[in-house]
Amino acid sequence: MINIRKLEAELWESADLLRQGSKLTSNQYCMPVLGLIFLRYAYGRFKLVEAEILKNRRVRNGRVLPVEPSDFAEKSALYLPSEARYDYLVNLPESADIGKAVNHAMELIEEQSEQLVGVLPKDYTMFTDEILSELLRIFNNSALDEVGGDILGRIYEYFLNKFAKNIASDDGVFFTPKSLVKMIVNVLEPKRGILLDPACGSGGMFVQTGDFVNHAGMSANAAMTFYGQEKVEYNAQLCLMNMAVHGLNGKILSGNDANTFYHDAHSLEGCCDYVMANPPFNVDKVKSESAMTAGRLPFGLPSINAAKEFGNANYLWISYFYAYLNEKGRAGFVMASSATDSSGKDRDIRQRLVETGHVDVMMSVGNNFFYTKSLPCSLWFFDKGKAEEIQDKVLFIDARNYYTVVDRTLNEWSEWQLKNLNAIVWLYRGEVDKYLALLHEYDDQVVEFMNIITHYEDIPDGYRAERSYAENLDLLRAKLELIRKKAKQAVETAERRHKKTVEADWNERIATVEATISILKEACWLYEKFGEGEYRDIPGLCKMASRAEIAEKNYSLTPGAYVGVAAVEDDGVDFSQRMSEIHQELLTLQAESNDLMHTISKNMKELGL
Predict the structure, then answer these.
(1) What mean pLDDT is predicted for residues 172-182?
(2) pTM (2 decimals)?
């Protein structure tokens, strides 16, 4: 697992040192550097797909047939001509005109993708060969070959913030964390049809949807039609680059004519199968007359101030997302937490929304999930095609206390935590088969890891399906302690020249056990709540509420208002007795502190101080 934040910082520090040594401004330097990151990422993706193609490649006259652009098109990937590949550029001779070569590489890539025409930067001749050569070297980093995550968007966003705050933060635009994007896509379960993101940023919703559809065995480009609007042109360029490198085709419009407040740029009202978005929160000064002319307000107008402006555009966005849906459409979006319980006309719009029966799931998300901002949020889900059995229901999930800490300022959901939250939605929808499949997935993953661990330690008593998850977890924790003791002994007794190798080997074993424990903990978390697949309300976590119950709470859509607080487990400790013990410990520590101060004072007097 790469440390993305450490990688970003290292890349930025190296690249910015070069800028400081040149006469280039940040604005001049910005897009060319982003273009090089894109080029490097595209090359990593190219190598991965090329390896897949060559696995079963036919042989003719004793030679493997070379790959061709059509092979990549079949896999929805971007083909790179030889002179557009990063290794070619990195290894150019010193006598080469590197700026001209990189410009040519960008032109070659645009020839492979219609949607990139005119998007990629082609002004590299303004760099000296020395600076450009060093930039190419900086981004020749193997970590950028990891294509499982939206690293392109993360690094682009980081660099955008560093280069020009006014670009990255315009109207509150910031990168949508991958775990939030995945949750939205997983709950909506896109299969085929039209997907609109009217605030598409760097395109994370499209990329994740493409992965979801492809994983289901379909071709994303054949099954889905992607539409995007993005006011900030820089972000739209990032989106187009991001989609191209993932082999996705889309229609992305940008600039003032793509400002969603004032334009339905693709004329998609009532046409979308899916709407996904992370819009800027709490935007003010939106002109009411222009917004009203643009329409898409099925529940009426939010509050307008004396300046004939919307002081807060959150409910404009919410109205738009609903208005874009067709008769069976689904929407999922990120929204400021305050919007679930705001008053005035917001409350009236919320009532009308609830009365449609199309509010599906509401999920609270805790602090520190955003990459550049520390604020809580909510995930909203609409479904115009809800099953009859839940037409009168809304599922509330409070996930504010369920997450993985990445570092002091960043939280996320792990892959298994995403699956567990998704499983609650499955049970609410009556899709028990998906829940049971997840339990089997837990079993298969743990058995795979336990086989490795058992082989390491020559301990035959491995994971057993007949045991509960909790029993297997206790077993594994005991094994971890045993392995740690053995690791310490092995390192201490190893010859000096072999110590690092032995330590690395044992650390790998420990990491495997820790990963297995992590998976088992999540399996326990899920199974203890829902057993073999029966939905039930869990205090502090989830509640299936009726429209009547929501009306009783004045149409609040705040999950915490419904799920309540989780019961506190009795740990078996007598409170009075423990408080007495703590008081006695405090008195002892205070006496020791007084003795120490007396000794220090005495010593200082003896020294004449």
Answers:
(1) 74
(2) 0.81
